[in-house]
Q: What sequence folds into this?
């Protein structure tokens, strides 16, 4: 079994009204999910293919609505035509 780590960067205030910040991510072990809102055109393909339905489109940008539910499977990364959401390996 592995330890589950989670860190989401957001500004103070109401998260419902906030746009995702550059580099917002969810992390498990050595993988990290990165969302680049500047690259996102809000097509919703990533959210449609998410098996855990943890992604949603708000204000025409993808956001992580349930970071703890993300299993970092990479389906969103495979489907995003703009490379706005992707997984990276963490350095130790």
A:
């Amino acid at each position: 079994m592995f330890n589950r780590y989670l860190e989401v960067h957001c500004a103070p205030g109401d998260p419902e009204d906030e746009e995702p910040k550059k580099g917002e991510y969810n992390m498990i072990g050595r993988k990290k999910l990165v969302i680049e809102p500047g690259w996102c055109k809000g097509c919703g393909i990533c959210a449609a293919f998410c098996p855990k339905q943890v992604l949603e489109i708000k204000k025409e940008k993808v956001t992580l609505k349930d970071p703890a539910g993300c299993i970092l499977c990479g389906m969103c990364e495979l489907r995003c035509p703009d490379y706005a959401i992707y997984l990276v390996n963490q350095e130790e």
